[in-house]
Design brief:
single chain, 9-stranded antiparallel sheet, two-stranded antiparallel sheet, 11 strands
């Protein structure tokens, strides 16, 4: 009798697990088809407005202040309200959506702090805002990664078609069953390196996404000091195009028999860390490893 009861319980557990898996997939499909279209266009609008006043598009504090005060903060609030009105049914999909809500709330906080910083001409508040923006970008990357991982798990392809007025998001899937024979192979993701290596190709030092080392430095810096050499590394200090201060630690790799960087050809440059400060000659945060690589790729890819 006990073994029969145990068998019934095991069958019930397996049945519930199967139903749970289908429930998660159905909820994910509903989130993609019904949830995302409610906010994806507004997200794009906020992103475009933010891009229009930052980075290479920055013109002056007044233009940034007016855009934030008159447009961006209001749009950001609308986006948060819309996103928070979406309530997935399962824990797994809810956790993914919460990553997005975290990202846009961090970004919204940064917008408000920037306005206050410009009002008060307070560089410390600018540093706080930059930190919040960095956290927002990291949270957004985590959201995208989680979204793609679940799509890969259930063999669906998310297609964000920004050219349609109704923000349709199409799922390339023939039915609602999860079948290992029909599930698509997950796409191979290029690993993120822990440093940025510019190798000598006979003509110049290049990196796959950032191109030529000298041109890359010009994209970062308005001006920089003569590098200070140490035993196997150098540091480059300078002023960034966005007004930030940068301190870059770069290892250089020489021919095995040579040890003087001033008299021999360097085989490669390897950027291992970057200090970013709100303005030149001030303290800042050190970024290193994969986070630093992603941060640089995001802003300075050729």
């Amino acid at each position: 009798m006990k073994s029969k009861l145990l068998l019934i319980i095991m069958v019930a557990v397996l049945f519930m697990n199967a139903c749970g898996s289908d429930s998660i997939k159905d909820d994910f499909l509903n989130y993609i088809n019904e949830g995302l279209p409610k906010f994806i266009q507004l997200e794009q609008t906020v992103t475009d407005e933010c891009d229009s006043i930052s980075g290479s598009n920055y013109s002056d504090d007044l233009a940034m202040y007016l855009t934030l005060q008159d447009e961006l903060i209001s749009l950001s609030s609308q986006l948060i309200d819309t996103a928070e009105s979406i309530t997935p049914k399962t824990k797994e999909v809810t956790e993914i959506h919460e990553k997005y809500i975290t990202a846009i709330n961090l970004r919204d906080t940064a917008f408000v702090v920037i306005v206050a910083a410009i009002d008060n001409q307070d560089y410390e508040q600018i540093a706080i805002a930059n930190e919040k923006l960095s956290e927002a970008r990291k949270a957004m990357r985590e959201y995208i990664f989680a979204l793609n991982d679940m799509a890969d798990k259930y063999g669906v392809e998310i297609n964000f078609d920004s050219h349609t007025n109704d923000s349709d998001i199409n799922l390339d899937e023939s039915d609602n069953t999860v079948n290992s024979a029909e599930t698509k192979e997950p796409p191979q993701k290029a690993p993120i390196p822990n440093s940025l290596l510019f190798t000598f190709d006979g003509d110049s030092y290049t990196e796959s996404k950032l191109g030529d080392f000298s041109e890359f430095l010009n994209r970062i810096f308005v001006s920089y000091d003569e590098p200070s050499y140490e035993s196997n590394s150098m540091k480059i200090y300078g002023v960034g195009h966005e007004g930030y201060g940068y301190a870059m630690e770069v290892l250089y790799h020489l021919n095995p028999a040579d040890d003087n960087p001033l008299e021999t050809e360097i085989l490669s440059f390897e950027i291992v860390s970057l200090v970013v400060s709100a303005h030149p000659n001030s303290d800042g945060d050190t970024i290193s490893g994969k986070e630093m690589v992603e941060w640089v790729y995001e802003r300075f890819e050729q």
